[in-house]
Each structure stands twice: as structure tokens, then as C-alpha cells.
Amino acid sequence: DLNGNEAGRDRSAMRYLSKVQYGNATPAADLYLWTSAPPAVQWLFTLVFDYGERGVDPQVPPAFTAQNSWLARQDPFSLYNYGFEIRLHRLCRQVLMFHHFPDELGEADTLVSRLLLEYDENPILTQLCAARTLAYEGDGYRRAPVNNMMPPPPPPPPPPPPPPPMMGGNSSRPKSKWAIVEESKQIQALRYYSAQGYSVINKYLRGDDYPETQAKETLLS
């Protein structure tokens, strides 16, 4: 850790969060413990931030107690925002959630979930490339993934067609628009003119050549 550029550097200013414990089994009488401590401490939940002390094999659940030393990142760098050097020298490799219910779960420290952080490490720039969440059963085995994704919602319905134009003032009677089409083009014209608000009629409804005025009175259903 202290070879090369790291020799002689002061790394004591940087602080790394390693553990958060909450859920005391014995409640405290005070809401805020500014000046007092709870009578007994038995935390039920522990969130552990691992910086390389434990293995990162997804098939092997890590232990609650740290086993190795912290690992150094390949691209350490410094911040000087506060007027002195703050050296960033570590990478959080995983976040572990432990439950402490020995009577219910059979052991004091039970791993229930795990966030694995994978990096593309090099001396120039290290980037986070993957984050995987794993769940564990009470016996330490990984829980089988469950597809809880909801199906995509159906597409919204098309907007309603605009109302037909009105005749004069406040009259509620729609204005009539007519279109006379040939029999061979009936289907195409029916779709087109109906969308335009026309009342489509058939010029050769019975095979006879009706006059235009007579054809207007025979509407297609």
C-alpha cells in the first residue's frame, strides 16, 4: 500500500463507513440518546461495508467477521477541498446485510442480502461496471431469483374522432357531406370518406345507374 507514489502520504484524514447497527432488542426510554446510553445493547440488524476483507465469490456467502486486510485501489487520488489532503485509497467491494435473531434463525449472524460491486480496475481510472443484488436463505444458500416484473401495460386507446361540424348557431344537427363512389372502389372509399366525416353511398347499389339525387337517399350500412 505504501510503495511508489503512496510512500510518505498522510491517509488519516479520510474516513470509511464500515458498519451500521440498528434495531436494539431493548428499547430505550429516551427518544434521543445525546447524553445517555441504552441499558443493554443487542442490535438486531447490521449493515456491513466491505473493502476487501471478505471474498467476493457469489457462490460463497461471506462471514460476519472480517478475515483479511483492506485492499488498496489501483488508482488512489486526493481531494483538497478543505485545505489539506484527503487521500482516497479504498474501494467498497460489497455491502452485506446481516440479521441477528439467534432464536428464530438458529444462529447469531445470518446473511440475508448482498450487494456485489464489480469494477474495471487500472492505475489510470477505475470505473464501476456492475452491481448485483443477491438474497440468501437462513441456511446460507442463495435464494433462487424470482421474476416479479409486471407485464408492460397495453398501449393507450386511440383518441376519439372529432365531432362532425355543426350547422349554424347552436343547432345540434350535423352538416351533411356526401360522396358518390364506384362499386370497384367501395371499400377503399368507405374507409377514406368515413374518416373525413362523409356519408358514403353506393352509386351502383342494385346494378342500375341511379341518378345522383336518388343515390344520395340510399346510405350504405
UniProtKB/TrEMBL annotation:
Transmembrane segments: none annotated. Gene3D superfamilies: Toxin ADP-ribosyltransferase, Chain A, domain 1. InterPro entries: Sal_SpvB. It comes from Salmonella gallinarum. Its main location: secreted. The keyword Secreted applies. It comes from the Bacteria. One of its GO terms (cellular component) is extracellular region. Residues 145-178 are annotated as: Disordered. It is found in: Secreted. The keyword Secreted applies. Keywords: Secreted, Virulence. Residues 150-166 have a biased composition (Pro residues). This is Virulence-associated protein spvB. The lineage of its organism: Bacteria, Pseudomonadati, Pseudomonadota, Gammaproteobacteria, Enterobacterales.
